[in-house]
């Protein structure tokens, strides 16, 4: 069966520091991969999605970037964090014409 | 692009009563409609889904209806229980590559 991992689970970072969040999927090939951000008490904001290695679509221009170095690995990065980057970051995967499954999430606090 | 609207944003019901959450979508090409339940601090979990070739689907106390002509779909929870309290998200997708989420409904079941 398929499994999705995210790490770290929680992270506290100072403003201006870099960020790297990692997501990996097991048990499937060529998944579509997504990064979402969820502010406290709010909905799901799609940040990036990828349909294949090296193929990244950005939904919201900001100081974040994403990369997909391997088929089942998706990385979210920032060179300099802002206070507004705090939130719950969720990675998700899907196969075309099928549902989307979420990872356990990373709770990021920027101080 | 697709626009998904979800109502109500908050809903309180007495234990044992029914709860209904409604979503509308704008893209007539959307053909897959999942519903997710998110408990506090956890990832969204798929609870039921429906495809455009089906008008209704049921799974124990949960049912989803779809009206393609009117472009709306609804989640029905019968005999609600306190453990049904959570935030519920609807979503619409075409081809499964991109998922467009509603803004969420916070359901509280009062014992």
Can you write the helix and strand succession of chain A as a string? Answer: EEEEEEEEEEE
Shape of chain B: globular
- Rg of chain B, Cα atoms, Å: 13 Å
* Global mean pLDDT of chain B: 94
Strand percentage of chain A? over 45%
Work out the strand percent of chain B.
Answer: over 45%
Q: Describe the biggest sheet of chain B?
A: 6 strands, mixed
Structure description:
Helices cover 0% and strands 59% of the residues of chain A. Chain A has 111 residues and is an all-beta fold. In chain A, the strands form two sheets. In chain A, strands 2, 4, 5, 6, 9, 10 and 11 form a seven-stranded mixed sheet that branches. In chain A, a hairpin with a 2-residue loop joins strand 5 and strand 6 (55-58). The mean pLDDT of chain A is 92. With 111 residues, chain B is an all-beta fold. Helix content of chain B is 0%, strand content 59%. Chain B contains no helices and eleven strands. Chain B has strands at 4-7, 10-14, 19-25, 32-38, 45-51, 56-59, 62-67, 72-77, 86-94, 98-101, 105-110. In chain B, strands 2, 4, 5, 9, 10 and 11 form a six-stranded mixed sheet that branches. In chain B, strands 1-3-8-7-6 form a five-stranded antiparallel sheet, with no helix packed on it. Chain B is globular and about 40 Å long. The model of chain B has no long low-confidence stretch (mean pLDDT 94). The chains are: A mainly beta (111), B mainly beta (111). At the A-B interface, strand 5 and strand 10 of A face strand 4, strand 5, strand 9 and strand 10 of B.
């Amino acid at each position: 069966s398929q499994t999705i991992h995210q790490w770290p689970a929680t992270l506290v970072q100072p403003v201006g520091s870099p960020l790297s969040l990692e997501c990996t999927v097991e048990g499937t090939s060529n998944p579509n991969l997504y990064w979402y951000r969820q502010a406290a008490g709010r909905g799901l904001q799609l940040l990036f999605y990828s349909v294949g290695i090296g193929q990244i679509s950005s939904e919201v221009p900001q100081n974040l970037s994403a990369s997909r170095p391997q088929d089942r690995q998706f990385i979210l990065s920032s060179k300099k964090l802002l206070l507004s980057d705090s939130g719950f970051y969720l990675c998700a995967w899907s196969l075309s014409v099928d549902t989307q499954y979420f990872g356990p999430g990373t709770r990021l606090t920027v101080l | 692009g697709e626009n998904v609207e979800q109502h109500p944003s908050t809903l309180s019901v007495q234990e044992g009563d029914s709860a209904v959450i409604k979503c509308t979508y704008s893209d007539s090409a959307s053909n897959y409609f999942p519903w997710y339940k998110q408990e506090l601090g956890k990832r969204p979990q798929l609870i039921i889904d429906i495809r455009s070739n089906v008008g209704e689907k049921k799974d124990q106390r949960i049912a989803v209806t779809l009206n393609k002509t009117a472009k709306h779909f609804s989640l029905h929870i019968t005999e609600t229980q306190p453990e049904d309290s959570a935030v519920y998200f609807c979503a619409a997708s075409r081809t499964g590559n991109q998922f467009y989420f509603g803004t969420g409904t916070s359901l509280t079941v009062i014992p």
